[in-house]
Amino acid sequence: MKAEDIKVELDKHANAGAAAHAQRFFKTGEQQYGAGDKFIGLRVPTIRAVCKQFKDLPLAEIEKLLEDPIHERRLAALIIMTNQAKRATETEKKELYQLYLRRTDRINNWDLVDISCRDVIGGYLMDKPRQPLYKLARSADIWERRIAIVSTWQFIREKQLDDTFAIAEIQLNDTHDLIHKAIGWMLREAGKRNRAALLEFLDKHAHEMPRTALRYSIEHLSPDQRQHYMQLRTKVK
Predict the structure, then answer these.
(1) Residue 111, exposed/middle/buried by CB under 10 A (0-12, 13-18, 19+)?
(2) How far apart are CA 188 and CA 193, in angstroms?
(3) 212 CB neighbour count, 10 Å cutoff
(4) What pLDDT, on the 0 to 100 scale, is given for residue 34?
(5) Where are the alpha helices (DSSP H) in the chain?
(6) 43-53: b (≥16 Cβ within 10 Å) or e
(7) 27, 33 Cβ separation under 8 angstroms
(8) Tell me: the pLDDT tens digits for 104-158?
């Protein structure tokens, strides 16, 4: 089972029109966040279906797939890693985790991060110190910063919310909209598990939160609560 084999299967479904749309949607123009990325026009369900045929792809071949310039091929590598992480032994989870962190240079768009880091990174760290996420949270690389906050999604599912709130607090002054969206998304998820904890965070930080992060975080609150927190921000800004 080789990386080249899965490339052949993926390429059978290439669609030039869909590729052109993806180039625009994922902001691949000069100086945009996905600058230079290349697409062949595959939908995620199609990629997942192909990945099922290669569920046991060895790590060395996964890394070759991660090195590919085509976005959907890297996405396939990460889907396979995610699926393997869910059924892996502790040793295998560690190997997947280490590969992921070693190749964050190839996990370079929001969809690649969001589809994989919860299970590969968050899943591995569930019963371990979370310090690696705090290093990522302060990275100069936007995708490593997004990995840090979105990986806490795994902890949220187990009602362990402290790291989500702590990393969100670290990233409140981040200048990138894609980090603002990720912060708000994870805060919203945390609020589904513990509404009081979310409200406590908002009482402390709503006035200084980026508008996008705040709007995402309060989506499931009552209309009166949403208005209250947006007004707190407006009064200071």
Answers:
(1) middle
(2) 9
(3) 16
(4) 92
(5) 3-11, 16-25, 44-52, 59-66, 71-87, 90-102, 110-114, 117, 123-125, 131-137, 142-151, 153-157, 162-170, 177-193, 195-205, 211-217, 223-236
(6) eeebbeebbee
(7) yes
(8) 999 999 999 999 999 999 999 999 999 999 999 999 999 999 999 999 999 999 9
Average pLDDT rounded to a whole number, residues 58-80: 97
141 and 118 both lie in a single domain:
no
DSSP 3-state of 70: strand
| Angle at the Cα of 207 from the Cα atoms of 113 and 214, rounded to 5 degrees | 35
**What is the pLDDT, as a whole number, of residue 1?**
83
Query: Which residues form the domain of 229?
Result: 129-237
Domain boundary, last residue among 105, 128, 151:
128
Which of 128, 151, 166 is where one domain is finished?
128
Q: What angle do CA 190, 193, 195 make, to 5 degrees?
A: 80
Are residues 50 and 88 in contact, defined by beta-carbon separation less than 8 angstroms?
no
pLDDT for residue 237 is more than 90 = no
Let me know whether 211 and 160 are in one domain: yes
Question: For the chain, how big is the Rg over CA atoms in Å?
Answer: 19
Half-sphere exposure of 138 (CA within 13 A, CB side): 6
Q: Which token pair is 146? A: 């997004």
Tokens of 199: 């409200």
Given this model, what pLDDT does residue 235 score?
Answer: 63
Structure tokens at 80: 């396979």
Q: Is the pLDDT of residue 20 over 80?
A: yes
